[in-house]
Amino acid sequence: QVQLxxxxxxxxxxxGSLKLSCVVSGLPFADYCLGWFRQVPGMERELGAIAGxxxxxxxxxxxxxGRFTIxxxxxxxxxxxxxxxxxxxxxxxxxxxxxxxxxLNFRTLLNRDDYTFWGQGTQVTVSS
Length: 128
Description:
Elements: E1 3-7, E2 10-13, E3 18-25, E4 32-39, E5 46-51, E6 58-60, E7 68-73, E8 78-83, E9 92-100, E10 117-118, E11 122-127
Parallel strand pairs: 2-11
Antiparallel strand pairs: 1-3, 3-8, 4-5, 4-9, 5-6, 7-8, 9-10, 9-11
């Protein structure tokens, strides 16, 4: 049974930082593309960042580029998202997602429908 479990969300003031974690079980972690998405009620779930199979296969949405860093620890089957310089616009439910992929196609996995496996989400709230 595949499980993705996010943690690390919380409430911070603008300019603060949070680090999200996502522990993955039930699939070959090192062979999957992993993404962080976020969603505000009433809005589409949008991509934040993707980590592909290779260490240098990383893509960020323009809205988080330069402030967020995605990383993974294959030995712990854990995906991370370091979020710095947070603003109220970053307030959302954050989800991790996993999809089988290759080094050739990871950059195409940009949308919610591209991923098969999802966590339950962790809430991030940034106050001004």
